[in-house]
């Protein structure tokens, strides 16, 4: 019989954002049904939050309060106002979670949102975001960002680029790697034996036979033909405006999109509160809620924990699938 998945590590994210209150709400919702522990400074948690300090992840199982692997940070906390003194601590908490997941002490890593400018200002953070930092920590050359919920999984091939820069950035190598990593991730982390991938075109109407652009003919279709020869189940290139209605979604397991909004608008329209950010291609399982630090409502008890709860649940499912 396979041993139970170890508890999930939850890195604290930006302390002045909604991360601390979300950790408390997630623990209250999940309780013993999904053991996880928070890596952060206990002083940053909301007043009255029940805390169980732990030394090892395994001690999170059955804890009477939110299990906390203490990670002290200097300087005061003011909700809504990032403190540069916390920046290095936030970065180190992520690295600590990665190390625990890589060693097997944690079953997966879930990351609360970070404030990238605060990390850059306070600690010279050199990475565009979580995804790139996790790749660097694990020595991974290329990773893929997936947004996932029960209704839809989407992968943007290019991510945080101005739209005018997308055509030049969209190369055959990048698209090939994105499709292969997604295909492998769906098998390894989602338990799908033969994933079905729908691939969007770049242009309106998927170029309409070259009348609205030739990227589909000259780049996307040849990549798909090559990968079909490797027995990947691929549909496309498809017109993006017909890919996301219920009938279309029933025909694939994930959609490969060409740029950020082409992927994120559909999933945020369909399932705004339950979307989860997943990093595929890492040697560990990593998920994150699909929202930011929400500094404007931090400390007011208004934050919706649904996305974090879904991220923790998905991390547990993915961790179990990978172990199997």
Can you describe what's shown?
- This protein has helices at about 20-30, 85-105, 115-125, 130-140, 165-170, 170-190, 215-230, 245-250, 260-270, 305-324; strands at about 10, 35-40, 50-55, 65-70, 110, 145-150, 155, 195-200, 235-240, 255, 275-280, 285-290.
- Helix 2 (about 85-105) crosses helix 3 and helix 6 (about 170-190) crosses helix 7 (about 215-230).
- Strand 8 (about 195-200), helix 7 (about 215-230) and strand 9 (about 235-240) form a beta-alpha-beta unit.
- The protein is an alpha/beta fold and about 325 residues long.
- It folds into two domains: about 1-145 and about 275-324, Isopropylmalate Dehydrogenase, CATH 3.40.718.10; about 150-270, 3-Layer(aba) Sandwich (Isopropylmalate Dehydrogenase), CATH 3.40.718.
- The mean pLDDT is about 95.
- The chain has ten helices and twelve strands.
- The chain is globular, with a radius of gyration of 20 Å.
- It has a twelve-stranded mixed β-sheet, with helices on both faces.
- Its main location: cytoplasm.
- GO terms for molecular function: 4-hydroxythreonine-4-phosphate dehydrogenase activity; cobalt ion binding; magnesium ion binding; NAD binding; zinc ion binding.
- Catalyzes the NAD(P)-dependent oxidation of 4-(phosphooxy)-L-threonine (HTP) into 2-amino-3-oxo-4-(phosphooxy)butyric acid which spontaneously decarboxylates to form 3-amino-2-oxopropyl phosphate (AHAP).
- One of its GO terms (biological process) is pyridoxine biosynthetic process.
- InterPro entries: PdxA, PdxA_fam.
């Amino acid at each position: 019989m396979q041993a139970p998945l170890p508890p999930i590590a939850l890195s604290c994210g930006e302390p002045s954002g909604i991360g601390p209150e979300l950790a408390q709400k997630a623990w209250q919702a999940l309780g013993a049904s999904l053991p996880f522990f928070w890596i952060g400074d206990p002083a940053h948690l909301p007043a009255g939050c029940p805390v169980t300090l732990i030394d090892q992840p395994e001690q999170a199982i059955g804890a009477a309060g939110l299990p906390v692997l203490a990670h002290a940070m200097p300087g005061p906390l003011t909700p809504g106002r990032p403190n540069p003194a916390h920046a290095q601590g936030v970065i180190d908490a992520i690295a600590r979670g990665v190390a625990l997941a890589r060693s097997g002490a944690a079953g997966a890593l879930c990351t609360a949102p970070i404030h990238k400018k605060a990390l850059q200002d306070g600690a010279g953070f050199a990475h565009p975001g979580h995804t790139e930092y996790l790749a660097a920590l694990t020595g991974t050359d290329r990773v893929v960002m997936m947004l996932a919920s029960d209704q839809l999984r989407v992968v943007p091939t290019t991510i945080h680029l101005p739209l005018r820069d997308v055509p030049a950035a969209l190369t055959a190598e990048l698209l090939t790697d994105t499709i292969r990593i997604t295909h492998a991730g769906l098998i390894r982390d989602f338990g799908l034996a033969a994933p079905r991938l729908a691939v969007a075109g770049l242009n309106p109407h998927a170029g309409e036979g070259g009348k609205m652009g030739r990227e589909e003919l000259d780049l996307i279709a040849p990549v798909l033909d090559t990968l079909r020869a490797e027995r990947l189940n691929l549909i496309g290139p498809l017109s993006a405006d017909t890919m996301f209605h219920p009938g279309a979604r029933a025909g694939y397991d994930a959609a490969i999109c060409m740029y950020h909004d082409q992927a994120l608008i559909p999933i945020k329209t369909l399932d705004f509160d339950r979307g989860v950010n997943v990093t595929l291609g890492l040697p560990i399982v990593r998920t994150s809620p699909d929202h930011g630090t929400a500094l404007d409502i931090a400390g007011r008890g208004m934050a919706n924990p649904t996305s974090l709860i879904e991220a923790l649940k998905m991390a547990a499912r993915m961790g179990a699938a990978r172990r199997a």
